[in-house]
Design goal:
Elements lengths: L4 E4 L2 H5 L3 H8 L7 H5 L9 H19 L23 E8 L4 E9 L2 E7 L11 H10 L9 E2 L2 E2 L4 H16 L3 E6 L5 H13 L3 E5 L6 H11 L4 E4 L6 E5 L13 H7 L8 E6 L4 H4 L3 E4 L2 H15 L6 H13 L3 E5 L3 H14 L4 E6 L6 H12 L3 E7 L3 H4 L3 H9 L3 E6 L4 H5 L2 E4 L8 E3 L5 E5 L12 H10 L8 H9 L8 H7 L1 E3 L13 H9 L7 E5 L13 H5 L7 E2 L4 E3 L1 H7 L3 E3 L5 E10 L2 E10 L7 E5 L27 E2 L2 E11 L1 E2 L15 E3 H6 L2 H4 L4 E4 L2 E4 L17 E6 L8 H9 L7 H5 L8 E9 L6 H4 L4 H5 L7 H7 L4 E7 L8 H5 L5 E3 L5 E3 L9 H5 L6 E2 L35 E2 L5 H14 L5 H6 L2 H5 L5 E5 L6 H6 L4 E2 L11 E4 L1 E3 L9
Parallel strand pairs: 7-8, 7-15, 10-11, 10-13, 11-12, 15-16, 16-17, 21-27, 23-26, 31-44, 34-43
Antiparallel strand pairs: 1-35, 2-3, 3-4, 5-6, 5-17, 9-14, 18-19, 19-20, 21-28, 22-30, 23-27, 24-25, 25-26, 25-29, 32-33, 34-41, 35-36, 37-38, 39-40, 42-43
Helix pairs in contact: 5-26, 7-18, 8-13, 11-12, 11-13, 13-21
């Protein structure tokens, strides 16, 4: 079945028949810029022993500095803390919340340092982590953060003068009848709300106002209209059989929470497998995972939604809507409709679900977003007339993220007592008279009520590194006065938590991190003006070009945009890192004369444009030609281009000036080519495996259920002198006995992998994978041990290409009849299917890398891992040349203590995140995935000390990528445990291995992707 599809990594592979050879030639560069790293021998990095000495000093420095110790010495523990054993990790349950994302998590610490974030399984779907949650541990060690309080531009050694200034302002404002405004991001903390009530009791003119960079205002207004409450509905797709999405990226940042857990549960192959229809403009992460995708510009998406509503309530003549209506009616209450882009779109989606009686609507409320546009406009009116005496901002920067940021800046500067609680010396820092360094969530106490019936606690896992203070601590000081014994927020939180945690003790709730309790308020349908919503969407004026703003998986709203792990993480769709860009369809790009070009080094360059939307202009916006982008539409990501927030954050284009804070779809769009070129840092063209169509297997659900497995997952065979034999039976190698002790395998289900990238960041955190920067990414020198390949594929009529019937590879066909069929190539990039495939070292039992290493630096372990001895490696790169999976990385430089790579490994604070169990690799050696051997061995040793067997769950948690995977796409375990999940998965009829025909016998295996559609209902 797979041979009927043309699979490609980019448009360039369709157009250039020689590209594969060029890439192969450039994959291993001969020239090494020796002079760049030999000029200064002091920058060559450290040995492992030096690293450990430095780590010991850094740990002491940070921990003792937080305690204000007068002397810092690198000495062993004299009085050892009872809960810290050197070399043994501790785990603490806590809550990750930064105003945009929430997750109940487990924090791994070593000698008092948080070094990794894991999901908290006790919290179910609220305990899953995305890439941003995984990377937030690095934001703790951000060297660009504000380190001391400041007053009128002068940094203070303590809070005395700052608190005196603020207390004076509070007293004067209250006496003078001026407003005291606390302007914060959404903060669904019941204890904070109670604390603010106490604050207001002392200062009656105090007001709490919410401001979010991405406020979900349209969604909240729609909820207010339909449910009578400003809270977002919680959906559960686990029992659904049909989801229809209209521009709703529900596997991303839609509705304040991802639905990927219940989505993956419903996508298990079988008769009741969830079918996913996506109607959208940008090729989103959600659209990439859909079964059928309708590619329409935003105005057409709105009109199709209207027609679907009309079809369910009478009739419609629209062809696309008619097909969707038939499927919705067939599934009834097992169907759900989701929409985004405007309030009217949300309202119609809610009313459709009400009519269907959709069981995906749980009746629970999501409380994570609290923005009220009317309330914020009221605050602006106070500000404009000089009615605000004290303004306290809580880690937000509306000067950057608000469409009228410069106007806000001028108004804030006029406030007599402006206080910024912030982590960067950014716009709000400069506009405020007093500054309090913001305490990271890993340094803070707190609680969160994320949704109905859920209560989560946040606890510090490290002493405050610098002189920071969270908002709650400050408010206690301003209520009780300086040096009051009542200023301990832990005591305040503990007392209040007892009323919220469903009768459990505080310590029990803290230990679990999550419990039932919190708010019991739910949602029920109580209104909704369908006629008005239909009228608004029908009246939406289409433009020749329409812009849709969106958020990326890595950067989100930009809160962590100074995090180099996130900035370097390749976008799942475009495979570009270190940038945002204007996405455009191939057809529109051709009409406007816009190009993406490959230079002689196979690096991607693109045109730049001047983008004007409703009179607001952005200069020099790079353009990326995106397969699957709807004609007449453009896409641009928010959260980039932050000035004065660290050098990493100052990357890309700030799109917030285009965002009205309400609608993400904009018309009146003009673009003008500047004539300038832009250099992209792209990974989508490296490590090509093109032409081998058994790499990313896919099959329709109908074929999966009704046809013999030999027709869609036929085992490979080899013709021998003795006849045809299964490929695994023909071998030049001796077999080894692997039945004694554990033998590890990793299962990867392509049907469950959404491409979110959480596993990539988890691997980076656990294994000290270096950030190399945009320039090195352009040189194809990324250091990732785990990558997520994104394949495009499109259905082709086999009879058109006779060569396919003869078993010819597509590159061969390029050279014959395909080159002359321009229309077919354009169609291939118009609306392709997408497959995400995580690829790491395959840990081959018959590994090609092992036979060619002249110094035996790489060898095979008894437990199935392909092992690396870094101190033996001399960097011949023979193993990389001989690896068919291209998963080995060569260290071109020392990435630590090197000014050329001025990221977290180049400063004392940033190196605090490093895992001491994994050596930092030096220049000139190869590195790759180890299946987290340090964790598996620790797990085995712990069980051995306890005199018991290792459980399957323990092994699953010991592999960072598998532990981070929210959808269960990755399963790690012991094949010699007959009850292990990975052994059961090994026997699945969907199982296959990459490049099985070359006989490497990997210990990583994959499961065929299933698309729930008839081939006649292919993408539109």
């Amino acid at each position: 079945m797979a041979s009927n599809k043309i699979q490609f990594r980019s448009i360039h592979e369709l157009k250039d028949p020689t590209l594969n050879g060029k890439l192969a030639a450039k994959e291993f560069q001969n020239e090494i810029p020796v002079e760049e790293f030999l000029d200064d021998s002091s920058k060559e990095g450290t040995s492992r022993r030096d690293f450990l000495k430095l780590l010991g000093f850094s740990t002491a420095a940070v921990t003792l500095a937080a305690c204000e110790a007068p002397v810092i010495k690198t000495i062993p523990y004299v009085v050892k803390p009872h809960d810290i054993i050197p070399g043994i990790p501790n785990f603490y349950a806590s809550s990750y919340f930064d105003g945009f994302d929430f997750s109940s998590v487990l924090v791994k610490t070593r000698e008092g340092r948080p070094i990794r974030i894991d999901p908290n399984p006790a919290a179910g779907s609220l305990g899953t982590t995305n890439a941003r949650a995984q990377a937030s541990v690095l934001s703790l060690y951000d060297n660009d953060k504000v380190k001391k309080p400041a007053l009128n531009g002068d940094e203070q050694e303590d809070f005395n003068k700052v608190d005196d200034f603020i207390l004076k302002g509070l007293t004067e404002s209250q006496a003078g009848g001026k407003k005291i405004v606390v302007l914060s991001h959404s903060f669904p903390s019941p204890t904070f709300k109670k604390l603010f009530g106490d604050f207001k009791a002392k200062y009656p003119s105090a007001e709490l106002v919410t401001y979010d960079a991405i406020p979900y205002a349209a969604a909240l207004d729609a909820a207010q209209e339909v449910f009578g409450q400003r809270a977002l509905p919680v959906y559960d797709l686990s029992t659904s059989q049909l989801v229809v999405s209209f521009n709703a990226d529900f596997l991303g940042d839609y509705n304040a929470s991802s639905l990927e857990v219940s989505y993956a549960a419903a996508r298990k192959p079988g008769p009741d497998m969830l079918r996913h229809i996506q109607v959208e403009s940008n090729l989103s992460l959600t659209g990439a995972n859909s079964d059928s995708r309708y590619r329409l510009k935003p105005s057409a998406v709105f009109k199709t939604l209207v027609e679907v509503y009309n079809g369910l309530n009478g009739g419609t003549s629209d062809k696309v809507a008619s097909e969707i209506v038939k499927e919705l009616q067939a599934k009834g209450d097992k169907a759900v409709v989701l929409a985004d882009g405007s309030k009217a779109a949300y309202v119609l989606a809610h009313l459709i679900n009400q009519k269907l009686g959709s069981k995906a609507f749980t009746g629970k409320a999501n409380f994570l977003k609290e923005y009220d546009n009317a309330r914020f406009n009221e605050f602006l009116s106070w500000l404009n007339v000089g009615q605000v005496g004290v303004l306290i901002t809580n880690n937000i920067n509306p000067i950057y993220s608000h469409a009228k940021g410069q106007t806000l800046k001028a108004a804030i500067e006029k406030v007599p007592y402006s206080v910024a609680i912030t982590d960067k010396k950014n716009d709000i820092y400069k506009a405020s008279k007093a500054v309090i360094p913001f305490a990271h969530w890993l340094e803070s106490w707190g609680d969160i009520t994320p949704e109905t019936g859920a209560y989560s606690l946040m606890q510090p896992t490290i002493q405050k590194i610098y002189k920071s203070r969270q908002l709650e601590e400050s408010i206690l000081v301003w209520i009780n006065g300086k040096n009051s014994p009542s200023n301990n927020y832990y005591d305040y939180l503990k007392a209040n938590a007892l009323t919220l945690n469903a009768g459990k003790t505080f310590n029990k709730t803290l230990y679990n991190g999550f419990t039932e309790g919190g708010l019991s308020t739910g949602l029920a349908y109580s209104g909704g003006n369908a006629a008005q919503a239909v009228a608004e969407l029908s009246a939406f004026k289409a433009g020749q070009l329409e812009l849709q703003l969106y958020t990326k998986s890595a950067i989100g709203d930009g809160t962590q945009s100074n995090n180099p792990w996130l900035m370097e993480m390749p976008d799942p769709i475009s495979r570009l890192s270190w940038d945002n860009y204007l996405t455009i369809s191939p057809k529109d790009a051709k009409a406007l004369g816009l190009e993406n070009k490959l230079n002689a080094r196979m690096q991607l360059d693109g045109d730049t444009v001047k983008l004007t939307v409703n009179g607001v202009t952005l200069e020099n916006v790079p353009v990326f030609i995106q397969p699957g982008q709807a004609d007449g539409s453009l896409g641009l990501a928010l959260g980039y281009g932050k000035k004065d927030s660290g050098k990493v954050a100052d990357t890309g284009v700030n799109a917030y000036p285009l965002f009205d804070g309400y609608n993400t779809v904009l018309t009146n769009v003009k673009i003008e080519k500047t004539g300038e070129d832009y250099e992209f840092a792209g990974m989508q063209l490296q490590n090509t495996l093109m032409g081998r169509y058994e790499i990313a297997k896919e099959v329709t659900l109908d074929d999966f259920i009704n046809k013999p497995v030999d027709e869609w997952n036929k085992p490979l065979a080899m013709h021998t002198i003795g006849g045809e034999l299964p490929i695994g039976k023909v071998d030049l190698w001796d077999s080894f006995d692997d039945t004694d002790g554990p033998h590890f395998n990793l299962s990867v289900d392509l049907n469950s992998c959404t491409g979110c990238g959480a596993c990539v960041i988890a691997c980076q955190a656990e294994n000290n994978v270096a950030v190399v920067g945009k320039e090195e990414i352009r040189m194809s020198r990324d250091m990732y041990w785990l990558r997520i390949d994104r394949y495009y594929s499109t259905e082709q009529k086999v009879e058109v290409y006779e060569g396919l019937k003869e078993g010819m590879a597509v590159p061969e066909l390029y050279g014959s009849n395909l080159l002359g069929i321009e229309g077919a190539l354009e169609n291939a990039a118009e609306n392709p299917d997408v497959i995400f495939q995580p690829v790491m070292c395959q840990h081959c039992n018959h590994a090609p890398c092992e036979t060619v290493c002249p110094v035996a630096a790489t060898s095979h372990g008894k437990q199935g891992q392909n092992q690396m001895a870094y101190n033996r490696c001399i960097g011949t790169r023979y193993c990389a040349n001989n690896c068919p999976y291209k998963v080995r990385r060569f260290n071109w430089f020392n990435y630590a203590l090197n000014d050329k790579f001025d990221f977290n490994m180049n400063n004392d604070l940033g190196r605090m995140v490093l895992n001491p169990d994994v050596v930092t690799r030096t220049r000139g050696v190869m590195e790759k995935c180890s299946l987290c051997i340090q964790e598996t061995q620790l797990t085995i040793l712990n069980a051995k000390k306890d005199g018991r067997r290792v459980t399957d769950a323990e092994f699953q948690a010991s592999c960072a990528c598998a532990a981070a995977c929210s959808t269960g796409a990755m399963k790690f375990g012991d094949m010699n445990d007959v009850d292990s999940e990975v052994r059961s998965l090994f026997n699945s009829n969907r199982k296959y291995t990459l490049l099985e025909e070359i006989g490497t016998k990997p210990n990583v295996f994959y499961h065929t992707k299933i698309r729930n559609r008839k081939e006649s209902l292919n993408n539109k």
